[in-house]
Design a protein that fits this description.
The chain is mainly β. Helices cover about 0% and strands about 30% of the residues. It contains no helices and 29 strands. Strands 1-3-5-8-9 form a five-stranded mixed β-sheet, with no helix packed on it. It has a five-stranded mixed β-sheet with strand order 2-4-6-7-10, with no helix packed on it. The chain has a five-stranded antiparallel β-sheet with strand order 12-11-26-28-27, with no helix packed on it. The two termini are about 65 Å apart. It binds calcium ion. Calcium ion binds next to loops.
Length: about 425
Amino acid sequence: MSKIEVDQVDPQSGTTLTLGTSGDTVSIPSGVTLANSGTASGFGLDFQSVKTANFTAVAGEAYPCNTTSSAFTATLPSSPSVGDQVLLMDYAGTWNTNNLTINPNGSNFQGQSGNAIASKEREAITCTFVDSTQGWLPSSGYQEGTEGVITPYTINYLVVAGGGGGGDRNGGGGGAGGLISGSDSVIPSTAYTITIGAGGAKNDNDGSDSSLGSIATATGGGAGSFGVDADAANTGGSGGGGGGGEGGSAATNGASGTPGQGNAGGNGANTNSSANRAGAGGGGAGAVGGNASTSSSSGVAGAGGAGSASSISGSSVTYAGGGGGGCQVDTGTASGGAGGSGGGGTGALYQNGPNTIQNSTAGGANTGGGGGGGARQVGSQPSSGYTAQSGGSGVVIISYSGAQRGTGGSVTSSGGNTIHTFTSSGTYTG
Ligand SMILES: [Ca+2]
């Protein structure tokens, strides 16, 4: 190896200086600085083969990404150096249907932690690592529009289904609508269908499901048993309460709820020799429905199971209480049948002799409360108030930190959060 030491190298003729010949490598040793004060061309990112599945990018490389078959994730380099660059481009014009997810691998992307999503057809993005605060920034691109790279954000949610209907004739209270709370991420400018479940009408009608897109679906509350042919209480988000039956029929047991959403209804009771018959409470999100009890001198209807409190709206509100059971007492005293906290309806009580009655009520609107059970109608009974009632409709509430980002529902703010409350079906657009 020989060494030439000169201060300048110029072309021997003409104006082109050539280093090496084809196949050679011109090596710049570590510690050497190439300072360019002229025009550089032909330098750039090292182009790679087409990617069709998850991969981890290397700084200084460019990747065509083909999402024709399925969406996948490009993970940026970990522990990047300032100035590191990665180029990503939509190989087949399919990022709008199968998005490319960009995982910043522990660094921020545009100042936020978590993944970003590239969703524009024929988009191309050069990602440059700037610093630990902003992390990676798109430093150049094509077809990026105003939302070329979007960053999902976290929401907290509450989804409550419609409550089940109560049962007539010493029937059980309706089970509360299923209650689900949690958190998930939503994608800006994406529509999420909001469904608010209706409450079930009296006598064997369950509440309807409520849902937040594909993120969460709460199951409608189960109907309470009603006193015809020992109708069985229905399962649901929370289960319906068992009935006391009518005539000489048997009492029935409560039905089960859905794990993670609600609880079972209580069991009905009767003392047919005294014509004392009592329905049980429907299950609530926070507790099982109360059992009924009877003797030769009394009937006690079961209370609806307690609901569950949530502060997602900015203040503590209890949702999804079970309906109370209904009760007929021909011999002695009648009591009980309170609705569970959180919108559960009150069960009807009928006490023969004094001919007194406790009116039943429906589950509260937008609470998911179960409907109250009914008492048995007899000839001397007042003309109304003894029948079972329907369950209450459900509700969906979305909350996230900071200023308003999405649209839909009734929008309020509390404690630095923006809150979207849906009392009827609609759309949340992220
Ligand atoms: Ca039934």
